[in-house]
Design goal:
This protein is of the alpha/beta class. The chain has helices at residues 40-52, 66-80, 84-98, 113-120, 140-143, 164-175, 198-203, 210-228; strands at residues 2-8, 11-18, 26-32, 55-59, 102-111, 128-132, 150-157, 179-188. Pfam families: DLH.
């Protein structure tokens, strides 16, 4: 896994890139971390996507300082729907597209906070978006107008996102956007994130759930196979 420096409109930031084995070109995937930031689990996700055949990049949205970045991130999610984090994600996508080993087709995957950004950038030139337990604040329909196809995964026992799956389903249906939204029963927020605290969390019924995570990734890869393969994307 290679660590690189990206140049975005709001400054430089760190990112990691993983290439599939063999010869390209490959479709590209941008992975957006959750509020924990860069972690061993995020790196495992990047490797998994590359192993499946995607040129994968993960930008570190906390590169300019965690506290400062968290403020701008939640300002973008809650108030503006834009801002430095969105531009950072798009810079990561542009880095993939500029790579001669990329077909030009791209998708975005995000977790929690990153899932919200995966939805925010869905209308901004991606070919597919795969958010895990995402939420938007405000008018879903306005924010998702022109969105690419979306495959979203939620937890039934998630007190943070009550009503979010329904809002997303209604908005995408009204907009005529192809989508696959699934709410996993008997699991909680962050069911697809494997962290060191998971053994303790599982005692309370929280944290990683292998069956739900496996099914969600099966749906995502099937969705990506449909929307990221084929001829090179026109410029």
């Amino acid at each position: 896994m290679e660590t690189i420096e990206l140049t975005a409109p709001d400054g430089r930031l760190e990112a990691v890139v993983e290439r599939p084995s063999g010869d390209g070109p490959w479709p590209g995937v941008v992975v957006i971390h959750d509020g924990v930031g860069f972690s061993a689990d995020l790196r495992r996700t990047v490797r998994m996507l590359a192993d499946y055949g995607y040129l994968t990049i993960a930008p570190n949205l906390f590169s300019r300082g965690r506290v400062r970045c968290i403020r701008t991130i939640y300002r973008a999610l809650v108030f503006t729907g834009d801002g430095p984090p969105v531009r950072d994600v798009l810079a990561a996508r542009d880095r993939l597209v500029a790579d001669p080993d990329c077909t030009g087709r791209t998708a975005v995957v995000g977790f929690c906070m990153g899932g919200g950004f995966a939805l925010l950038v869905a209308p901004k030139g991606f070919d597919a978006s795969a958010p895990f337990y995402p939420s938007l604040y405000g008018d879903y329909r306005a924010m998702l107008d022109g969105a690419c196809p979306v495959v979203a995964s939620y937890a039934q026992r998630d007190p943070i996102l009550i009503g979010a799956p329904r809002k997303l389903e209604e908005a995408l249906t009204e907009l005529g956007v192809e989508h696959d939204i699934k709410v996993y029963p008997k699991v909680t927020h962050a069911f697809a994130n494997c962290t060191p605290a998971d053994p303790l969390l599982r005692v309370t019924g929280l944290g990683y759930n292998e069956d739900a995570s496996r099914d969600a990734w099966h749906r995502i890869f099937s969705f990506f196979d449909t929307h990221l393969t084929g001829d090179e994307k026109p410029s």
